[in-house]
Amino acid sequence: MKRLLLAGGGHAHVEVLRDLGERRGDFEATLVTPYPWLTYSGMVPGLIAGHYGVAECTIDLARLASRAGVRASFTSAISVDAQARVVRGANGEQFSYDVLSLDVGCVPHIDRVAGVAQHAVVVRPLEAALKEWARVLDRARDGDVDAVTLVGAGAAGVELALAMEYRFRRELGAQAPHVRILGDAPHLVPEFPAGARMRLSRRLERRGIGVHLGSRVTDVSARSVHTEHGIEFASDAVFWTAGAAAPAWIRETGLATDERGFVAIDDFMRSESHPEVFAVGDCSARRRRPFPKAGVFAVTAAPVLASNLRAALAGERLTAFKRARRYLALVSTGERHAVAAWNGFSSSGAWVWRMKDRIDRAFVARYAS
Q: What's the fold here for domain 116-243?
């Protein structure tokens, strides 16, 4: 009997599990992922801001796997022997496969910055970062936090900064810690159109969040952050959101990668070098017609991935994933307000947050029933 191995419990694999629960095939399937749940990234800023409880933002992977008849092992994949077709888990277990799908996400781009591993909270994996955020919030309640720094001026850093500042201000009032963003790019959220950048910049300014751009962070210590221009920022907590890097072990798999180490895939989400291996989401990169590192693409690609995994196991024809040229980006701003960017245009308001809330809740609910 053929063996399907799903490495990682990301946004695409939850759809594969749901699909398997509805139409079980004549093959064995195994899920290897560190946690028995998926924390939905789209709702994390709302969780930090206090709009959601943890249960509202999580998808029960153990339940999904059980319903689909998929064996689940809750450990991290740490290596792939593509020649032997074996994945090794952090717990020492080995998993053989005929078809492998990787949905293991990315890691923050630390770029050998001193002190990050010891003193900063990297935002991936989200589960670990949320535990650290809870500790920082408790310290702030105790008066032990005067300033919080987010390194990375992309959408993730901006959204988290706004969520944290809102939560601090709502709970602590005038004693709320100062929140700042540091980034080496010349512009805030450079991936967004100018109108959306302006809306977010005004929001940050109105909320008193410091924004310091154009200078790379070179060192993080227990109570400060240093930049390449010699500026030292006092900081009692540092959250690292800068950039996206491929998990280091991917380069050692023997799979074709792009120049940054992400799994190189074709239009079918299949490895360029190993046709029995698929990759989706932030751990992958399509060299022809590339797309940004955004969760929306893993979500929209998921049904095609599920179909292609079945086809690969059966030796049938695959379907190309054709992503939309435009995609809607929604960034919450702490309170029940959000900014929308689409096709060069932008808008903002409470109605955008309500739309985002409906979309996010619907995604989680799809896998709860």
A: FAD/NAD(P)-binding domain (3.50.50)
